[in-house]
Specification:
Number of helices: 17
CATH architecture: Up-down Bundle
Organism: Paenibacillus brevis
Structural class: mainly alpha
CATH topology: Amino acid/polyamine transporter I
Strand content: under 5%
Protein name: GerAB/ArcD/ProY family transporter
Distance between the termini: 30 Å
Keywords: Membrane, Transmembrane, Transmembrane helix
Helix content: over 70%
Number of strands: 0
Length: 382
Amino acid sequence: MVSRRYYYYLFLMSAVINIINLVPRVLIFTRFDGVFWSILLAVAYGSLTMYMFTRLIIKFEGQGFPEIFNTYLPKGVVIPLLILYSIFWFVAGSIMLLSFVDITLRFISPDISARAVMTGFLILVVGASRFKTTSILYATEIVLLLSFPAMVFILIKALINPAFNWDSVLQVLTYLWTKPKLVTVTGASFAFTGYVNLAIFNRSFNNLTLKLRHFWLVPVSGLLILLVTLLVPIGYHGSIGVEDHVYSWFSTADSLRMETFIVERVLYLFYITYLSMSLVMVVIYWHVGLELFKGCFNEKEDKKDSGDKETDTGKKSRKNQWIEAILLFTVSASMIYLTERINQVRLAQAGQWFLNLRFFSETFLILLLMFLVWRKRRSARR
């Protein structure tokens, strides 16, 4: 079992990593269409759903979705639900991987083969996603703590740079009173979505509690991260020109220099920092997706104990090994196939569709958990 701080690591990792891809693109495209009110609504919605989801799932201490569903839902409903949400988690990781392959080719090494880059990423992700849940949480803490100083340095470097144009930021602020858009709320709220990984990681927590004197940091940090995500690229590229940059934060990092450091371009430090965190985030997504899919085949075991808890010898059953191997091979083959066949426009469209579906699917999860808590209380009275 792990301590409560790892719960906040899941949120913080998700919030920080979304600064580079899907979220800034949505915020920038709607910068003149009520983006600030949309951010406030997203912070309120994300904080509320995070609090409600956590308070509900901790009532099933040491259990993940497979165990909970197999205990309190009909068998005909369990498998479709687990498969559906397993696909959601795999798609989330896949979009992030495809985006980072595109980023690598555009900013780091345009001459290398896209398949070679994807293959290198897949070797790391596929191997790590099969680790124990607690091991992935420990790795998340290490990577986040090692990356944090670099993130703070890059942010300070960006804000104190003379090239940062505050007039562009003030120009966007003049649109403060425009009406918010749902598409912006769904995109911005993705920064809070790390809590949903408790669908599997709840197995590793014991006596997880939420205290309001600590939880207020979630909306405050989420609001600051979203504002920084939106305003820093605008300060460098202008309120109009920022829309021409697909990966606005990488373009911003490429505008910065470290005059007294070994490596002059901040872009390389930014790339290494966010590559390491992105790969860890993909490992988390695929680990959750893998465990959800395995839950379709471990009904009897799940009712007795958690499917992720290894035996004392640490060995997994041969059945689980085959399930993992077949599923990960299929997903990896699909990723390599898509690498050179999905263009930037289609990837952006897929990302936007995913953000919209995720928004409503998480709301459905909370309603479902309310029903399951009611079922649990009702069965306890009998």
